[in-house]
Design brief:
mainly alpha, 7 helices, Uncharacterised_VP2110, DUF2753 domain-containing protein
């Protein structure tokens, strides 16, 4: 994954912001987001997936921050939602929507969310979640338990 072009546009946007040139700043932030969205991985490993996700989320947060500083809360919210969607795309989705532990806003059950958080890139968060059994409330897993 080649990040040079993304980095270049992100830096140019930051420089334009520093030089009080909002038009060029937004242009380069948008280009950085576009490049991030087009990035793909051939044979991804966990580190590369985390790196790609980080790049996409940073791009969204840069744009959200730009719009916050310029007083447009609607656009700020749209870019924050886009960042959230990038993260949620990594959480395993569950088709058991009738399950009592299903979280509709995430599209997954609590056990899938806990399993995801146990792999969180921030070791402090992963450590806090480590002791929670992720299978305890999942109806799908419960159907396979032996009595």
């Amino acid at each position: 994954m080649d990040t040079r072009s993304w980095e270049q546009h992100t830096l140019l946007a930051d420089q334009a912001h520093t030089n009080n040139n909002p038009v060029m700043s937004i242009v380069h932030y948008q280009l950085a987001l576009s490049i991030a969205d087009e990035m793909t991985l051939d044979m991804p490993n966990e580190k590369q997936l985390n790196e790609l996700l980080t790049i996409k989320v940073i791009s969204c947060h840069n744009l959200a921050n730009f719009w916050r500083q310029h007083g447009d809360s609607d656009y700020e919210l749209k870019y924050l939602q886009l960042a959230s969607e990038q993260v949620l795309s990594l959480i395993p989705q569950c088709k058991q929507t009738h399950c009592h532990s299903y979280i509709e806003s995430l599209g997954c059950c609590k056990s899938a969310l806990i399993a995801f958080l146990k792999r969180h890139p921030n070791p402090q968060i992963a450590k806090q979640i480590k002791a929670i059994p992720h299978y305890s409330n999942c109806e799908r897993i419960a159907t396979f338990k032996l009595n």
